[in-house]
Structures are given as structure tokens and as C-alpha cells.
Amino acid sequence: MFKRIRWPGWIVIFLLFFAIITTITKGSEAIIKTDKEDEDNIRIEHKKSSKYPGLNFITETKEENTYTSSISIPTTESESINKEIEGWLNKQKDDFFSAMAANEDILGEDFRAHLNIQLDTEKVNKDIYNLTFYAYHFSGGANGINIIKSFTVDLNEKEILSLTDILEFKEDGLKIVQENIKEQLMNNEDVNKYIMIDTLNDVLSDPNDWEWAINNEIFTIYFSEYEIAAGAAGVIEVNIPLAEIKDYLKEDILSQLDIVTDPVAEEDSKEKQEEKEKKEEDQEDKEEKVELDPSGKYVALTFDDGPSSTVTPNVLGTLKEYGARATFYMLGSQVNYYPEIAKQVAEAGHEIGNHTENHIDLTVADRSKVHAEIKDSSDKIFKASGQQPTTVRPPYGAFNDNVIEVSKENNQSIILWSVDSLDWKSRDASAVKQEILRNVIPGSIVLMHDIHNSTADALPGLLKELKEQGYEFITVSELLSLQEAAGVGPHYGTLNY
Ligand code: ZN
């Protein structure tokens, strides 16, 4: 082999070596230079991982003139998994926008379309997770539509599992499983009268088209609204105990699953009750009254849609540096993934408010749904942080009588805002800072989001400037008590007319 390289070969190798060395040297010089130039501006990335190692989650929200949207986005360390999930999410957005286009003339500030994509994450074992999306499309037509999509990911193999990775239908195995699914559907009195049998047969005929998930106990098949039944049936789930299809499970998956044939009963609820009481006592101990001057120059900074893995820890760092306290309107779905960050926020002396479980537009939900959205996130916030939210911020600032009544039942005041940083739109640190400085007055409630890096970047300059102007930073509840603003509200803070 070596003999084949004659002198022109050696020159090429030498030149290549020289080129590599030059690039490395230049590269490191460039890095050093940037560091020096931006010394004051280096963002410290305190990245926290979620309670599921290898997975991170963010809820991306938007509020435009004609629509609102909230999308839960999971990311893994595998580009190919991320890309496939992103592809599906983008398809949902495209479908939503084209459906919206048909209703262009009726959509506007008073009647907006809504896209909500929620995520249910289930851990199967240390590598395998079910990521199940529930998408609700309301594009302005008569009814919304619910779509379900499930990805079973193997983080170790860095791949999304296909049905053929899981099941191998030997002999008449496929027919047996198809019959099992049909029988369950026909025995389900809530849905059987709506089933369109020809369509069902069609959907079941090709297992590659099935929407499914698997855990240690059951294999689940999902059907989106209208897929196999009239709309009244909604989204349909069929669960098959693994024991019933054990013969068709592939060796590979069998060795990974820890199959449970007799699920363990729920934990003793007495223990949970005791834990709750203890936390309530702790909370009472922790509460210390801060002396507030009724004629003081106060502002309440608020951060919505978190906690997030990178931005929330950064925001906490800056607030600490300036001795500022703020209010975080958290989503129950995000608190579920980042309970540790919620706890840190509470321990740093900030207030945690309720921003509902899934960031839906509450004005299009019925009363029981509104109740669940407010109650579920309150419970998650309390469990994670020991703080019981006393204020709620409805997503998109959208509320109606239902929302007011349910908030009242939950002893939570509705908090809107008087200064909108528009941070989600500009995504620009200096624009965020300017927008707030232009509009802030004593008693303002300022709306920001702790999911954009640009917002975290705006904060040091903003706090410095406001402090120089004599402002002090307090929580929303403190501002309410100072303004003697009682009851469910809604409360906006002092408006700058
Ligand atoms: Zn929000």
C-alpha cells in the first residue's frame, strides 16, 4: 500500500495537512476574538434536562389576527427522529392554514381559528417512549376536527419504531388481531352506532397505516375523528392486552419490554394526602410578608408558557442578579416535564401563576373542559413546587363567563396585562426592551415569555434601565394587594392611556 504513494502523493498529503492546520488555527483565533468582543454579551446556557433523560419539550404559542396556535414540540438527541416529528407537525400546520384560507372572509379578531397540538409522553423503559399527539384543528368551519398521531421512539437506537419492528403476524395472526379490534369497537356502546364498517375494514386492512403505541401492558390502536366513524364518536382508542398478542410480538421487543400481566393497584391515597398536608404546612412557613409602600414605583414582570429547559434557568439567574421577583405563568403540561425547574422558581421567591394545562383557547371549550384545564395545571404546579396558584392567566388573554366562573370556583383571580412586550413576535432582545420601556408606568403588569432566548437576553439591560428609573419588581399578587384589586377580575395592572 505505502509503495503506491510516490512523491506527487506526498505533496498532496502535505498540502492537505497544511490546510487542516491552518483552518484549525484560524478557527480558534476567530472564537477567541468573538469571545473578547462579546464579553458582556455571552449567554450562559444553563440547560436543564426534563424528567425524561434525552427528551426536551417546549410549547410554542402564537397569537395572530386571524388565528391562535399552541404546539407541543418534543426534541431528542437524534436529528432523524426530530425531523420526522417536525415533518408531521409542519403537515398539521399546512393543513390548518389551507383550511383557514377557505374561511378567510369570516376570520378576524372577533372570530379566530385555533390550532392546538398537545403531547402525551409515556415512558416504556429507559430507551423507549410513546409520544402521542392530540391535534385539534378549528379553522373557522362548523366544527373542529381532532387528529391523533403516535410515535414510538427508541432513543438508544435513535429511531422511530415501525409496526414491523414490533409485530410479526404469523399464519392468521393479522386476521385475529383485526377481529379483536373490531369486536372491541362493536362492543363499545359509546361508539358502535357511529362506526362505518366498510371504512373500518379498509383502515384495518393495511397494518402499516395503523396509528399505534405499545407499553409493558397494552398495545393501543388509535383512530382520528372521522377516520372510521361519524364525528360524534370523537377520537377512538382500542386497547389490547399484550398477553393476548404475545405470540406475534417480535423477540427483539419482547426482550426489551417488561411485560406486566397483572397491573399493580394505585398507590395508597392516604399517603398522598399526608404528603399534601405537609406541603401546605411548608408553604405557610415559607410565606414571609414583604413591606410594600403604597406610593412606591412598582412593576410586575410576568413570564408565560414555561418552564423551559434553557430560558427559565437563564431568566432566574438575571432576576437574582438584580434582586428582582417576578411571576411565572406556567403550563401544567410543561411543569409535568420540568418539575425541578418549577420548584427552583418557587424556592427563589417568585410567584407561580396558572396558565392552564394545554394552552387552549378557553372560550371555545365547554365548562367541564375549562375546569379541567385550570384544575389539572394547579395540581401539577402544587405537586412540583408546593405553591398553590392564586392567579390564572387564560391563554391568549381569551376569557368569557365560563372562564370567570370556573376561576372563581378555584379561588384564582384572572390576570391579564397592561404592557405587551410582543417578544414572541419580534424575537429580538433590543425590540423587547424598547417595547417595554416605551409603555411601562408604575403599577404595570408586563407580559413576556420564558421560552425565547431573545427574551432572556433582553432582561439584563431591561432590569438595569428600570432600576435606574427607580422601579422595584414585585409579584402579581403583591401588586394586586397594593392596588387593592380584589375578586376574580380580570385584572390588567395600571394601563398607560
Ligand atoms: Zn401563553
Condensed summary:
The chain has 497 residues and is of the alpha/beta class. 40% of the residues lie in helices and 19% in strands. The structure holds zinc ion (ZN).
Topology:
Layout (H helix, E strand, L loop, with lengths): L6 H31 L18 E8 L3 E9 L3 H23 L11 E11 L4 E11 L6 E10 L4 E2 L2 H4 L6 H15 L9 H9 L5 E4 L3 E6 L12 E6 L9 H6 L12 H18 L11 E7 L6 H11 L5 E4 L1 H6 L1 H9 L3 E4 L12 H19 L5 E2 L8 H9 L3 E2 L4 E2 L2 H4 L2 H11 L4 E6 L3 H16 L3 E2 L2 H7 L15
Parallel strand pairs: 2-3, 10-11, 10-16, 10-17, 11-12, 13-14, 15-16
Antiparallel strand pairs: 1-2, 3-4, 4-5, 5-6, 7-8, 8-9
Helix pairs in contact: 8-15, 10-11, 11-12, 14-15
Bound molecules: zinc ion (ZN).
Zinc ion binds next to loops.
Give a structural overview.
There is one protein chain. This protein is α/β, with parallel strands linked by helices. Helix content is about 40%, strand content about 20%. The chain has helices at about 5-35, 80-100, 165, 175-185, 195-205, 250-255, 270-285, 310-320, 330-335, 340-345, 365-385, 400-410, 425, 430-440, 455-470, 475-480; strands spanning about 55-65, 65-75, 115-125, 130-140, 145-155, 160, 210-215, 220-225, 235-240, 300-305, 325-330, 350-355, 390, 415, 420, 445-450, 470-475. The strands form four sheets. It has a six-stranded mixed β-sheet with strand order 1-2-3-4-5-6. α8 (about 310-320) runs parallel beside α15. Bound molecules: zinc ion. The site of zinc ion has 6 residues, from loops.
